[in-house]
Amino acid sequence: MAAPKKGRSSSAQSKPGRSLALILIAIVALTGGMFASGHTTPRLGIDLAGGTSITLRAVPEKGQESAINKTNMDTAVDIMNRRVNGLGVSEAEVQTQGDANIIVNIPKGTNSKEAQEQVGTTAKLYFRPVLATEISGAAATASPSPSASSSASSSASSSEKATSSSSPSSSASPSATSTSQGRAVTDALKADATPSTSASASASASPSASSGSDTADATKLQAEYAALDCTKASVRATAGKGAKPTDSTVACGQNSSGQWQKYVLGPAEVDGTDVDEAKAVLNTTTGAGWTVTMDFTSKGTKKFGDITGQLAKNQSPQNQFAIVLDGDVVSDPSVDQALTGGSAEISGNFNQDSAQSLANMLSYGALPLTFKEDSVTTVTAALGGEQLQAGLIAGAIGLALVMLYLLIFYRGLSVIAVPSLLVSAILTYVIMALLGPAIGFALNLPAVCGAIVAIGITADSFIVFFERIRDEIREGRTLRPAVERAWPRARRTILVSDFVTFLAAAVLFIVTVGKVQGFAFTLGLTTVLDVVVVFFFTKPLMTILARRKFFANGHKWSGLDPTALGAKPPLRRTRRPSAPVETKEA
Questions:
Q1: With the C-alpha atoms ordered 351, 77, 47, 99, is the resulting torsion angle positive or negative?
Q2: What is the pTM for the complete model shown?
Q3: Maximum C-alpha span of the chain
Q4: Nearest 5°: phi and psi at 286?
Q5: pLDDT tens digit sequence for 547-563
Q6: 44 Cβ partners below 8 Å, 6+ apart?
Q7: Do the beta carbons of residue 531 and residue 494 sit within 8 Å?
């Protein structure tokens, strides 16, 4: 058996079916994953689905211009995400735009006015003493509550320790988890009396305030607490939101087990601006795992030392302080001694994400930033539907024109180009549908434009390959060797062209913000898919069809007719002329 000659690759020519099988398996797997996930359509952006887009501009306090930085802006995005989610919105988008802007996109079906009020106000962070707390709704087992301990660097405060305590559990007798609800809030904070643990004490009012107004306030607070059901999103959205820092209030919060708890909270004793810095730390020294450390300002150090000293004299839950952000309790650590060192550490059932989240919230209370509303754009669902329809019509027209061009100029080769375009379209659609729930990708109008532009880019790759094959046929080669000789040259051109396009899309995605990123992302995605389709579908399919007589014999409708292409006579191997024979004359 003769060995294959150098320079001729037999593997790609003899086994094109493997590449076709591989890409078909990928299509089936991705499509199956799409249906299994339940997301069979791409997620639509605000401009297509309808909704409200709010642009907020960060404004620093006087002399604090450096406060507009990536860390603070990312923290603000986290807080606004919490606010929007508090309205029951699951598809909202909150992202930074440039250095000083935040874009909030809220889909249709949401009270846009309420959402606008929620994201446009400055977050308020307070430390309030816990007067009473219990699981809200159905009875559930207790979960450990975070504990706070001093972590000051001075020798005097470094020896201060606090033991962890368990959050009260909900039971048939609520007295095990709550103090006397009728006690005036200010007296409950300052009194040394041990909280009552009897069922009758928790079910009846026993005000100790001297004035009638305090008694009325306590009675009203007791009624609000009794009626509070934190398992309902509509209740959580309003509970304690309008309370002044000097007022007692009710609030809702979620413990580490995911259960909703309701609270009676005293007046704010420490403000968020009293926190100088907060960060998540992995504590390997004591084995506490992930913790949150807080450093206070000089004014905050005194306030925090005073309140923790008072709370340490009480029994659970009145030895806890609630960290309240926008009226929601985000943490309720307990203390057993005054923390006067100027810093504290909150430990408990934290992982890295939950510790970082709490640290961000604590830091936000000290951010010298406010946000001004620059613009509000509302897109109705009808208008979004019209834009989507127009985009789909434009895409269909573009695809039809490309197919018509291929059919007219390349005739039979369109049998390869059209299925390649369809495979590229299927992959693009399925991946976009999967990226919606995976990374929050939303198909907006610029992204649709990117997909339309990609049709031309994909068709250009086929044209490059076909023209290289035609060039080889013009040189007098038959189809099968022409395909294999044309592929290396076409491959190099396709890769360079797609790399330039992808590079442009990547730069555009990095340097731009908002909707333009949708165009860049779609353009980059389809460019990568173009390479995949050409390598694993177009080239193998061309190799297979080159063995068929219709193409191999250069039928006039194949698009590879040597006569129509002006091919040279077939190349033949010439033999070296033999030496002339000398004859002698007789």
A1: negative
A2: 0.56
A3: 155
A4: -100, -5
A5: 888 888 888 888 888 88
A6: 384, 388, 442, 443, 444
A7: yes
